[in-house]
Write a structure and sequence with these properties.
The structure holds two protein chains of two kinds. By secondary structure, chain A is an alpha/beta fold. Chain A is built from ten helices and ten strands. In chain B, helix 2 (43-60) crosses helix 8 and helix 5 runs antiparallel to helix 8 (207-232). The longest helix of chain B has 35 residues, at 2-36. Classes of the chains: A alpha/beta, B mainly alpha.
Chain lengths: 259, 334
């Protein structure tokens, strides 16, 4: 089966710092794959490269067998690759509802000519998008703040809005960058449930960066461990947790008790 | 009462005229800033260019306006808008886009736009010479005198045809821009882009398209503003030098990046200019008998001489920057 995301021998350096070092990994279609690693392992950089936000130095990235190396983010969006941001991004001067309504691709009102020539079509589509946005905002539990400017929402609510954004369109693969950070425990349960549901019912593939091991354990299979810019090990969460190399990478070399 | 009419003619009418032109100009500057985050100095020269295109077209097709009962220059305006929009998109492709692709700091873009200013100005001078030209080539400027129905009033309110056209077009521009930004998907995409470019891109908004659309709108508005000003007075190749400062002042006063702020700022600066050079002594004349002698006999009671008019926007600018650095409206995002 063709992997949903296929990263082949990618290198990326910032100045003299080799952040991604001949990294190859693949994400199976229909999976929720976790990407973990100590700080500075290059997780976010790799994410940004896949999402088209950073140019890579060498290597290739494929989406469902199609080469997407260095394609801009807006093009990837239309190919069904969506992402959330580690630090929640929002259109701060639009309401939460409008934020969601910005997302769906290829609306008639977007073309220069159809916007003027087909007002009926534009209006019916917009009504449809609004209906969908209201559904999504109910789903992520932000109904009560839907008409607030998104800039005024709390950090956790912005994170939910990020997830909501990925539900507005039929994505094929969603990159979640620390979606749980700053979200309280009860909301987190909902979040995990939503991700699982999207995966099960809508067939979304997820690639998840996360520091919350509990969430990784509950959600992800397989888990990929990144260290110093390349894949250290890949496997189920149990395999990862018992892998001495991984423990060393996270906690440093084990102390010899006898000396 | 005659003095009041004098006030209306010299302050209300003149201020609205200057204010409208500054407002449309400032909207252009502010749109460029909100999408591309740099101060576009060549904007005033795009205005001159637009007016110059109108002049050329009017010379090429004299009498075209007579069909529609409008001045030829106004009939040629849409075509000039298209040409100026094309120029704006072209300048972006040749000068600004390569810089953006290298991810330069905004100040580099500002300097580049300064270079474009000088280049455009030189080019226009090569073809237009340095003297002023009347845009009314084949027709006559109509002047409307509205006599007031009071016996004591002899002076009429004077409004010229280009001024009426200017008021109408300004209202159309403002309403049109508002509808575009608030209703259309493309306008909303522009707002999204100015709010958070990374997220806009990750939401599938094509930033190159948005940049191009911005330049088309900016070019069109520049042509309108330049032409309206040239219709009211005359076309001069060095128009931009006198426009640049007040327009930037207006944009900053309103809060850079905020179109409604730019409109408010434009009118504020326009009225401040006319109020500052207005001879207030005229309004005191009816009360001459009851005033102390030194005041009654003072010749010119303007705040500043009209040759120092250009200082007024600077003064407002400094005052606003001290009092409210982000502008009247909070700027940065459409």
């Amino acid at each position: 089966m063709v992997p949903m995301i296929d990263v082949q021998h990618v290198n990326k350096a910032f100045g003299g710092l080799q952040v991604i070092n001949d990294c190859s990994l693949s994400v199976r279609a229909g999976s929720i794959t976790g990407l973990i690693g100590p700080n500075g392992a290059g997780k976010s950089t790799l994410f940004n490269i896949i999402a088209g936000a950073l140019p890579l130095d060498s290597g290739r990235v494929l989406l469902n067998g199609e080469e997407i190396t260095n394609r801009p983010a807006n093009e990837l969006f239309h190919k069904g690759l969506l992402r959330t941001f580690q630090i929640a991004h929002e259109f701060s001067h639009m309401t939460a509802l409008e934020n969601l309504m910005m997302v769906p691709p290829a609306q008639a009102g977007e073309g220069l000519f159809s916007a003027w020539l087909k007002p009926g079509l534009v209006r019916s589509q917009e009504a449809e998008v609004r209906r969908r946005a209201l559904e999504v905002i109910d789903f992520i539990g932000l109904h009560h703040v839907r008409n607030e400017l998104a800039g005024n929402l709390s950090g956790g609510q912005k994170k939910l809005l990020e997830l909501g954004r990925t539900m507005m369109t039929d994505a094929r693969v969603v990159l979640l960058d620390e979606i749980a950070a700053g979200v309280n425990r009860t909301l987190l349960g909902d979040l995990v449930e939503n991700i699982e549901r999207l995966n099960r019912e809508m067939g979304y593939t997820f690639l998840v960066i996360e520091h919350d091991m509990e969430m990784i354990a509950r959600l992800c299979d397989p888990v990929i461990v990144l260290a110093q810019g390349s894949v250290m090990v890949e496997g189920s969460i149990e395999e990862i947790q018992n892998n001495p190399e991984v423990i060393e990478a996270y906690f440093g070399a084990p102390q010899d008790a006898t000396t | 009462m005659n003095e009041l009419v004098f006030f209306i003619n010299n302050v209300i009418v003149a201020g609205s005229v200057t204010g409208s032109i500054y407002a449309i100009g400032a909207v252009g500057v502010t749109l460029v800033f909100s999408i591309m985050r740099f101060a576009h100095f060549a904007h005033a020269d795009m205005m001159t260019f637009g007016a110059f295109m109108v002049l050329l077209l009017t010379l090429a097709f004299p009498g075209a306006g007579a069909f529609l009962g409008l001045p030829t220059a106004v009939v040629m305006l849409p075509l000039a808008m298209v040409l100026t929009a094309g120029l704006a998109v072209g300048i972006d492709k040749v000068f600004y886009k390569p810089l953006r692709a290298h991810g330069v700091k905004p100040i580099v873009m500002v300097i580049a736009s300064l270079g474009v200013t000088l280049m455009l100005q030189g080019l226009i001078r090569v073809f237009a010479g340095t003297s002023g030209e009347n845009l009314y080539v084949d027709d006559r400027k109509e002047i409307f005198r509205l006599a007031l129905p009071f016996e004591s009033v002899r002076a009429p309110i004077v409004v010229t045809e280009p001024q009426i056209i200017l008021f109408v077009l300004t209202i159309i521009c403002i309403v049109g821009l508002h509808l575009f930004l608030s209703r259309s998907r493309l306008g909303k995409a522009m707002r999204a882009m100015s709010d958070n470019p990374d997220l806009a891109r990750a939401s599938g908004i094509n930033n190159n398209l948005i940049v191009a659309v911005t330049w088309v709108i900016v070019g069109g508005l520049a042509a309108i503003a330049g032409t309206l000003l040239s219709l009211d007075v005359t076309f001069k190749p060095d128009l931009s030098f006198f426009l640049l400062l007040p327009i930037f002042a207006a944009a900053i006063v309103g809060g850079v990046g905020h179109p409604y702020g730019a409109i408010a700022g434009g009118f504020l600066v326009g009225f401040a200019e006319t109020l500052a050079v207005f001879n207030w002594g005229v309004l005191l004349r009816p009360f001459r008998d009851s005033l102390p002698e030194w005041l009654a006999n003072a010749g010119n009671l303007a705040f500043v001489g009209s040759e120092y008019k250009i200082v007024v926007p600077f003064f407002i600018l400094v005052a606003i920057l001290v009092w409210r650095p982000t502008g009247i409206f909070k700027g940065k995002v459409i």
